[in-house]
Amino acid sequence: MSNTDFAHILTRTVDELSDPASLKGLFHQHREGNPLPSGKVLEEIIDLSRSIIFPGYFGKSSVNTRTIRYHIGVNIERLHKLLTDQIMAGLCFTCPKTGEPCTGACANKAETISLQLVGRLPQIRSTLATDVEAAYNGDPAAQSYGEIISCYPVIKALVNYRIAHELHTLGVPLIPRIISEMAHSETGIDIHPAAQIGHHFTIDHGTGVVIGATCIIGNNVKLYQGVTLGAKSFPLDENGNPIKGIARHPILEDDVIVYSNATVLGRITIGRGCIIGANIWVTEDMKPNTKKYKKE
Amino acid sequence: MSNTDFAHILTRTVDELSDPASLKGLFHQHREGNPLPSGKVLEEIIDLSRSIIFPGYFGKSSVNTRTIRYHIGVNIERLHKLLTDQIMAGLCFTCPKTGEPCTGACANKAETISLQLVGRLPQIRSTLATDVEAAYNGDPAAQSYGEIISCYPVIKALVNYRIAHELHTLGVPLIPRIISEMAHSETGIDIHPAAQIGHHFTIDHGTGVVIGATCIIGNNVKLYQGVTLGAKSFPLDENGNPIKGIARHPILEDDVIVYSNATVLGRITIGRGCIIGANIWVTEDMKPNTKKYKKE
Amino acid sequence: MSNTDFAHILTRTVDELSDPASLKGLFHQHREGNPLPSGKVLEEIIDLSRSIIFPGYFGKSSVNTRTIRYHIGVNIERLHKLLTDQIMAGLCFTCPKTGEPCTGACANKAETISLQLVGRLPQIRSTLATDVEAAYNGDPAAQSYGEIISCYPVIKALVNYRIAHELHTLGVPLIPRIISEMAHSETGIDIHPAAQIGHHFTIDHGTGVVIGATCIIGNNVKLYQGVTLGAKSFPLDENGNPIKGIARHPILEDDVIVYSNATVLGRITIGRGCIIGANIWVTEDMKPNTKKYKKE
Amino acid sequence: MSNTDFAHILTRTVDELSDPASLKGLFHQHREGNPLPSGKVLEEIIDLSRSIIFPGYFGKSSVNTRTIRYHIGVNIERLHKLLTDQIMAGLCFTCPKTGEPCTGACANKAETISLQLVGRLPQIRSTLATDVEAAYNGDPAAQSYGEIISCYPVIKALVNYRIAHELHTLGVPLIPRIISEMAHSETGIDIHPAAQIGHHFTIDHGTGVVIGATCIIGNNVKLYQGVTLGAKSFPLDENGNPIKGIARHPILEDDVIVYSNATVLGRITIGRGCIIGANIWVTEDMKPNTKKYKKE
Amino acid sequence: MSNTDFAHILTRTVDELSDPASLKGLFHQHREGNPLPSGKVLEEIIDLSRSIIFPGYFGKSSVNTRTIRYHIGVNIERLHKLLTDQIMAGLCFTCPKTGEPCTGACANKAETISLQLVGRLPQIRSTLATDVEAAYNGDPAAQSYGEIISCYPVIKALVNYRIAHELHTLGVPLIPRIISEMAHSETGIDIHPAAQIGHHFTIDHGTGVVIGATCIIGNNVKLYQGVTLGAKSFPLDENGNPIKGIARHPILEDDVIVYSNATVLGRITIGRGCIIGANIWVTEDMKPNTKKYKKE
Amino acid sequence: MSNTDFAHILTRTVDELSDPASLKGLFHQHREGNPLPSGKVLEEIIDLSRSIIFPGYFGKSSVNTRTIRYHIGVNIERLHKLLTDQIMAGLCFTCPKTGEPCTGACANKAETISLQLVGRLPQIRSTLATDVEAAYNGDPAAQSYGEIISCYPVIKALVNYRIAHELHTLGVPLIPRIISEMAHSETGIDIHPAAQIGHHFTIDHGTGVVIGATCIIGNNVKLYQGVTLGAKSFPLDENGNPIKGIARHPILEDDVIVYSNATVLGRITIGRGCIIGANIWVTEDMKPNTKKYKKE
């Protein structure tokens, strides 16, 4: 191929790809000073959160009782700073495009929400402590809490979920979804940040689990790999598109167990203490303390 | 353990592991100047492609209308260079081993294919734009196109697939498979680069989806997590090994929906507008506009 | 928000999170000189192992017959050093906390085990060679052994499993689990390091596969994506918690095939040559050479 | 040493070092949003400037005539962004501490100055082109302009100086000094950014050269290593400290040559065409076209 | 060149370079567990020290009064840990080679010395504060203490010197020299760690300054670039080699000034308040308050 | 400043800087496949050379007698590969620009030269061993050969010089100069790669030393900091520019000592055993065993 041909194709392709018509809806224009949320910074935020919640298990710090306050202080400060920036980026991502950088109001809002999240960390830690306990009690192969904390995927997924859920509750757009997709990619567990989940929650193995946005899950619930808590169908609007925002995923009351690859669909209620067997398809309410297994 | 014992075991192990007999079939001998395909460079290639296709969403660039042409120009040039090297590595990986470095013919071929791929990027972008639309319309929880582009795993998987598919079509060995396995690892979605997939394609959640090499998928098709479009069985050759290259995966016509964990096997045709329910096992043709649900 | 409020919330949160009561069971106190196992170093250990077992396919080395002994020598030495440190970290993680650093006895034990693992690498390579062969024969889409080695997830999972299993057998705590979870995250294949698996083993696609700790798998066995080899239920102790250490997962004899998303539960025996169809739930023994498919 | 002693010393030292009295004048308190100038970012700024001024010699870009405009466009945009942030940091570093973050006025000023600097780059390049020519003509060992640009320390020092000088002229505090000290550390050539230097300037070898803040240097001047253009003495104020801001360094008119290790001190004028020999000490005016050598 | 020739030359060269005879005196054999001092870690140690001594000026921390104690606590702990390892490496480097790893005695000694150094940091900071003051007062071009701290090479050189000197005083081998050579490379100022230097010491510009091992320098002393405080000649032993350890460098009493490129040689005493002019060669005692200038 | 003004200035500046007229002589156009020499790769080359010549002192390897051959083998192979690429880059940098990539002849030449350099490493090591000995014997402050090797700047400068000199002798353009400038920047010692230097050569402290391209230095020569071995004047051609390639720097015979800041200029001969005092200016031959000191 001659250099001239090469230059021609290169230039033409650049022109086509820079053409505004080709970019419609696919191009995120940055306004000065309003950067996009950063996956890399959000990873650091999650790493910091893990270091704060489970000191000594994550990060390179060799924390001990002499120095734990120093470490938590530094980590909290950095978490607050990074989180403020990312929340700001999330707010700017979705606020109406007027061609001007976001005003100070957005920055203040971001800082306030970030501080609120920081203030909720002690509560998040104490809920996660119940999740560690549940994972340990639920797996005969587990040797210690330390093993659960340092290598069980469910704990990684739940740290992300519990933080993402708080951010969602505080009204932050986009960021919670990115955080939950990070855990999805790492663990194969896909929990929507809007889902509500009680304490002592655990998932064994985890790959393929899906928990939809309007799920409500009680305490002491246990899921196995491949379980879907999904929507059965969604009402369509006049254009044939799904209507957004309708409750469409299951409610699981306390003490429910769902075995591997079961699919539970629609706004149904699985009563307290129910057990759903593997590879089952459930689309109707189950009364408390009932069991449903595959007939085979 | 004495130092002498240590040295003995170490030396013996190095000897055993360097023994040509032990290495048969497991050792990739490099000829000078013919490096192996690099996972790290292929990741950069995918990152560049994402930056070019969805400007402003990926990479660290703060692109805007003033500067988009500069950014796309630089990225296209770098993409072309890196891709040429990797295609060359793929060609060399599979060409007959004669002990000599590949001749210039291979290098010219690599550069030409790389340029052809670059020239197809505008078309790839416009197909991916339909996939973004399909993902948005198909998920009541989605808030904006931006959210789809920046965090939905299906889009990550499809960018890789659509590029890998073009490279496969252009006759590049190995590289397309590595690119599709990168997406598989990141998203749990395993699409063989040889599969053919129409526009407005989407996958919800995605973990566990498998789309085999000889699948043909129409337009406006939607899959859910855990769906397998696989082979039922393969004819064996006289040695009892599967015969390579036979059409053995399903054909899905336009507007088909397959719900979670359904398994569709063999060279069957699922007609236009069919719906396949969750956890179903389908091994026979379905007429257009029919539905198949689990009986439970 | 005023600076005073900010400082107040920050300080209060640091205090709460540093409170020993809040940390009970969640805080890994480091003793001087006894660092935690490091995910990053374990990744380097796996990368080194891949480089040693499949020379030329992994790492940045451009090894050839002239220089292979140099490369294997350097890699073996580094592997031994890093592994000794990590085994030591694993031993210290679980040994009783007396407030003193581990004595030299632990260090000697770590070095000996590390050397034993190194000495077993030739055998590990030769078993993995059979796995490569099985993957190639089992997939009509595979073009070459090289393609299998460089991009099939099953090989990545099995390198980790076969090393983790040896470490488990040698009595190393924690480290084997971290190594297997690394493969789980990368491939979606979750193989417990305590499971026993014969030669010529392969898994197609792999996402969602679970192989429990007490599984025993023969030679020439093939699994598809989403297969669970799990426990049916576990006996509880007087406190209602599962009793640890009981054989509770299936035995698969030689030449068994299990298709996608099948679930095999409990300490049952699947006889030699059995075939289990997709999406099946199996909880009872199967006689040799029997087949079980979904009735649909 | 007991753990108690250790903890005691550690805690006491932290207390002493955190004591405000001990920190007086040594502690740079950050106000939120007003980061310190960053050496690392300033290095990237210099690297970008080198890439823009001498395309193809620096950075990893493989620029050519087809793509140079793309590269310069991307680099200019990034330079402007990074420089705006650093100028802002410089302005904030020196503005009066009122406990509040800098207002938007500072940000606007930073952006304007940054853009002015960008607008002067063509002129800076054309002056540096004369410096390259002077270095080439002045060194019999030089083989090509390319060699001068890619490895002569004088060019590195002059790129930094000519940019730092523009920033100084535009009223930016601190940043110019950091940029000139970066060159000082790399090359041993210490040029104060406030000095004024004409075109076709060169320094051979360079280590130990010092050019003071109020120097005025004409065109076609050449210095050798170890030359000091310094102050002889400075008037003291009533406290015995030097009075700041007085012209105290030499004026070198056009076509002057100063050989190695010569020391020229005070506000004297070295006339056009003068030559100063090695290891000389000059503290008085020299008439044009005179020479001064060591008497030995 | 044929592959055979290549392999021959390569192998022969490796053999020659591995030959113990060729390695005599040039080969540092590592004993297990006794690593060499690491330049990279020592750089981190210096960066940490700068961060602790001048909070907010170095490192990426955005420390403020709210959080300074947390930052200093974390930095002190890390400094202590890294320094203990490096001191241990220094002790092992020089202790007699018996083929066995160093015993615990060395480790204890390293930890004790490291803690002693940490305990002296408040005093080191307060001496450096006087050096900052001296640099500010001595340079009419300096705008603020902040400018001195963040970019004057003398401060970088003195942080290294004052730490290296303490380590030297505490009996640590090798490490102090490496630290002082790091400053030498960065600033061109070469201060031997064994030299003794009072408070309010400064050096202007600095490149080329040499301060020998047995120098004794009083308070309020100022040097300019290129000044050598060196040895005149050294007594030789019976083999014609210099005898080590003899006092051979100058004593400078309080308030001495030495101008650029002056050379002061031998164990002479420069009395309080003396001034030595530029490019002078001084080899004899100077009485207090005398001046010596070049006669030209 | 309005966005329009901004865009205008940005665009205009990009245009000006991309204008071929503005780029004349300053723009290095890359031909495909002919990259520029890389400072970063050359640094790795020097690091590798240091690791090979002084095993155990540089790099992160923990080499010992058991494993030294493996390490040297791997390092030699990598050195050869990187060096071949860089020599190729140097050859392409200077060969006539015909618009086509360099042919295979250049590549073969680069590989041959690289191998020749590798084959000379044993001789380079043995000369450097004499330099280490000279540095140790010449400095009463030196404690061990190990200290000399690991931190004396003269050794760093001489490793670079002795390699650069061999490359220069083998006809490689540009690369030797870049290597010597790397040492110049790190140590302040500027040795032209074309200079000829005997064994047992040392430089004390080193900052500011300049050794010109046509210098010839015998054995057992010692220089101190700030010494210039330079050209006195150069004959000009008809255009008034220096004529390149004329012998113009001093010859120092065996056993010469030159003290700090002395300047020796022109093609003169300093006879065997001469001593030149500090701050001296020498421009005429000195007979063997004469001394010249400053008259003061």
TrEMBL record, chains A, B, C, D, E, F:
Record field: catalytic activity: L-serine + acetyl-CoA = O-acetyl-L-serine + CoA
Cell membrane found in the keyword field: no
Residue ranges of the TM segments: none
E.C. no: 2.3.1.30
Single Gene Ontology BP annotation: amino acid biosynthetic process
Cell cycle in keyword set: no
Any Pfam family the entry gives: Hexapep
Keywords: Acyltransferase, Amino-acid biosynthesis, Transferase
An example Gene Ontology molecular-function term: serine O-acetyltransferase activity
Family membership: Belongs to the transferase hexapeptide repeat family.
Protein name (Swiss-Prot/TrEMBL): serine O-acetyltransferase
Native source species: Marseilla massiliensis
